[in-house]
Amino acid sequence: MASANRRRASSSSTPVRPWDYEVFLSFRGEDTRRNFTDHLYRALIQKGIVTFRDDGELRRGEEIAPSLLTAIERSRCALVILSERYAHSKWCLEELAKIMERRAEMGLIVYPVFYHVDPSDVRRQRGSYGEALASMKEGSLSNGHRGGGQL
């Protein structure tokens, strides 16, 4: 289930926006859901910013819901909360790939937020990010899939 604070103006003079959400929050639930992301989400709502946050918790073997991918497509910008174990999640990386695809194709604005990680570790794929991406490459290559690229 997803949360989205949505408000629609009833005035016919209000211009139609090409997006449903001003902000899409991308985060690793077990790292930040009950603390940083909750506080950020509440602050955005209090400021009247229409925000999408996935409230569902994916279990191993489940796929990202099509509604989540649609929410990315219908967002003006994405806040990607890069926490220590974000890159260890196949779903987070799939979500990030969709976000970056929309950035390239449609100009989606992307803001990285480094939560308890060194930005240079993410950029240079060191530390937990290097480990996670190396592990994914090995798993992908052994399964006959293409390896991942840089974040």
UniProtKB/TrEMBL annotation:
SMART domains: TIR
Subcellular location: Cytoplasm; Nucleus
GO-annotated molecular function: NAD+ nucleosidase activity, cyclic ADP-ribose generating
Record has rRNA processing as a keyword: no
GO cellular component terms, semicolon-separated: cytoplasm; nucleus
Domain TIR: 19-151
UniProt xrefs under Gene3D superfamilies: Toll/interleukin-1 receptor homology (TIR) domain
Signal peptide segment: none
Origin superkingdom: Eukaryota
Pfam families xref list: TIR (PF01582)
Main location (coarse class): cytoplasm
PROSITE patterns hit by this protein: TIR
Catalysed transformations (reactions): NAD(+) + H2O = ADP-D-ribose + nicotinamide + H(+)
Keywords linked to the UniProt accession: Cytoplasm, Hydrolase, NAD, Nucleus
EC class of the enzyme, as a word: hydrolase
PANTHER family according to UniProt: TIR DOMAIN-CONTAINING PROTEIN, TMV RESISTANCE PROTEIN N-LIKE
Protein family (similarity comment): Belongs to the disease resistance TIR-NB-LRR family.
The name this protein goes by in its record: ADP-ribosyl cyclase/cyclic ADP-ribose hydrolase
